[in-house]
Design brief:
By secondary structure, the protein is an alpha+beta fold. It has one domain: Cyclic phosphodiesterase (Cyclic Phosphodiesterase, Chain: A). Helices cover 27% and strands 18% of the residues. The protein is built from three helices and six strands, in the order E-H-E-E-E-H-E-H-E. The strands form two sheets. Strands 1-5-4-3 form a four-stranded antiparallel sheet, with no helix packed on it. A two-stranded antiparallel sheet has the order 2-6. A hairpin with a 3-residue loop joins strand 3 and strand 4.
Length: 148
């Protein structure tokens, strides 16, 4: 659809906690954060998420992850790991909305065509169920109009 950049399957992700720009973090800090995070996150069992009808936001089309409680349990563990190494943990602690982006907007304009396309695609209710069994640190960039 014009005005949207679809996220390829390989780049689909549920962002949980950001650090900083990759060029702004020391490798020693990353290793220390990862060591503590591995220990803290290991206490959280794998969990299932349901992805239902996508939501349209001004910047993206995304699946809201439900139930949101399970990913929300992982985030404090990651924030504690970061806080064990750094004095300041990036991102507000209450700003987490677990979701998986499907497409990013690359233009301005009405969202009516997007809603119409979603209505046509979802004339039969469908849901997807996924199991989350690990957390990974990824280097994320948006050089080609999408997070990769």
């Amino acid at each position: 659809m014009e005005g949207l950049d679809l996220v390829p399957d390989a780049w689909l992700h549920l962002t949980t906690q950001g650090l900083v720009l990759a060029d702004d973090v020391r490798e020693d800090d990353v290793r220390a954060i990862l060591d503590v995070a591995a220990e803290r996150v290991a206490r959280t069992p794998a969990f299932d998420l349901t992805l239902d009808r996508p939501e349209v936001t001004p910047e993206a089309i995304r699946w809201e992850a439900t139930p949101s409680e399970s990913p929300a349990e992982v985030r404090p563990a990651l924030r504690e790991a970061i806080g064990s190494v750094w004095d300041v943990v990036p991102e507000a602690s209450n700003s987490f909305a677990p979701h998986i982006s499907i497409a990013y907007s690359n233009a301005t304009g009405p969202d009516t065509p997007i809603h119409a396309a979603l209505n046509a695609a979802h004339s039969r209710p469908t849901t997807a169920h996924i199991e989350i069994e690990r957390v990974e640190l990824i280097v994320l960039n948006r050089d080609q109009r999408m997070y990769q």
